Amino acid sequence: MVNYVATLISKAPILEEQRQAWRDLLAKLQLSISHNKKLSDRAEDFFFDLPESLGLEALRTEVNTVCNEKTIDIALQPNDRYRRGKRLVVFDMDSTLIQQEVIDMIAAYADVEDQVSSITSLAMNGLIDFNESLRRRASLLEGVPSTVFESLKSQIRLTPGAHELCKVLKKEGCQLAVLSGGFIPLANWIKSKLGLDYAFANQLEVSEDGTALTGKVLGDIVNAERKAHLLRHIAEMGNIELAESMAVGDGANDLKMMDTAGYGVAFNAKPIVQEKAPARLNAVSLQDMLYILGYSLDEQNALLEN
Ligand SMILES: [Mg+2]
């Protein structure tokens, strides 16, 4: 028997009907709730023992059905010291820490939107891999002024709750990183805005006179494997166990880092990513991530106050 916690999180106050669907599922599986704890009117923890004969995967599949039917998220995880004892949290950037996809913004700036979206659709249909799609998209940017990233900064919108989530995690002693398949000038900027410890992303080559992009990508491409590798690398540098880490992202190329981390959360992700991720959160604010780690709203507010 392993003691588990299921965190119910809703965009609106949790309805009795949603709570009941969860209780009915546990009853059907002959599992019983030992106790529950309200984290806010939108989030609640339920603690229960899970026999090893009933795998977590089997339970997760059933839970996801309830989530889809009742429009609620239920995050399952062992109720152990690692839940709240995170020492490293890594984030994807585009559509996770920020609300946009930077490549689309650059494409609009350079007036190559159609070409970029046709490469994106080749990649989404599995006809080319991430590295190839990045190289092809980057090549369309040849000649674009190197000031492009500077000009985009004013258009970038941080995801609501990103500041609050990072502030609380820093206060609790977590190291934070952005691991992005996007570009390093903006990843570094997000790092400084949110007070993160690390930023890793792709580097676009600049012409010798410094005025324009050459359309080439320099160094290791940050793809799914690289994100997982960087997570391991940062953990090792900080003497942090992988069990003490969490990865948050929205894309298919975030799944490997989610599997490598102690826990992984798909944030407002595509259905296929939600299905494969250890947990999902469909929320307006990234701050709701703190419910998954067991912080009540009162505790969050106290940590945010000073
Ligand atoms: Mg993303």
From TrEMBL:
At the top level of its lineage, which domain of life is listed?
Eukaryota
Q: What does the record give as EC number?
A: 3.1.3.3
User: Where's the active site on this chain?
Assistant: 92, 94
GO MF term (any one) = L-phosphoserine phosphatase activity
- List the pathway annotation: Amino-acid biosynthesis; L-serine biosynthesis; L-serine from 3-phospho-D-glycerate: step 3/3
Required cofactor names: Mg(2+)
**What keywords does the record list, in alphabetical order?**
Amino-acid biosynthesis, Hydrolase, Magnesium, Metal-binding, Serine biosynthesis
InterPro entries listed in its UniProt record: HAD-like_SerB, HAD-like_sf, HAD_sf, PSP
Q: Which CDD domains match?
A: HAD_PSP
- A GO CC annotation given for this chain: cytoplasm
Q: Give GO terms for biological process.
A: L-serine biosynthetic process
Q: Which NCBIfam families match?
A: HAD-SF-IB, serB
The UniProt entry's sequence similarity note says: Belongs to the HAD-like hydrolase superfamily. SerB family.
Q: What is the protein named?
A: phosphoserine phosphatase
- Native source species: Lipomyces starkeyi NRRL Y-11557
Taxonomy-wise, where does this protein's organism fall, top ranks first?
Eukaryota, Fungi, Dikarya, Ascomycota, Saccharomycotina
